[in-house]
User: Fold GNAT family N-acetyltransferase from Streptomyces amritsarensis.
Amino acid sequence: MKIIDLEPGDGRLTADLLPVLLELRPHLTEELFLSVLAEGRDQGLRFTAAYDADGACVGAAGWRIVATTSMVRKLYVDDLVTAAAARSGGVGHALLAHLEQHARAARCTALTLDSGTQRTDAHRFYFRERMAVTAFSFEKPLL
Assistant:
């Protein structure tokens, strides 16, 4: 498996990563994804792709390093998805390990993410990865 941090403007963001990301975020269109990329770049948003031995993108992670008063600096994972056909093959583990390396290099105090309450399979995976539930996430829809 090959893990690659994709730079802004890299054509693989839409050609390779977006189709995998759509499995988790089906509301995205290419136009909306490019808009989020453009706005998110200034907020530190980055994407990492996992490729299998045949060169197919099988995993995607969106992430950023964030300064907070509670943790000082953390790596926050916006998106973590493995293509359905590649699940249980170590893709998610490899992506998280790669992101943890980024977090440690940036002297982050934690690697964090939110996961929908209905995503019980994902929760089992996060527990296996030695992650803990440490907070509730609240939201108030505005649209």
Q: What stands out?
A: Helices lie at 12-21, 30-41, 91-105, 120-128. The longest strand covers residues 57-68. DSSP finds four helices and five strands in the chain.
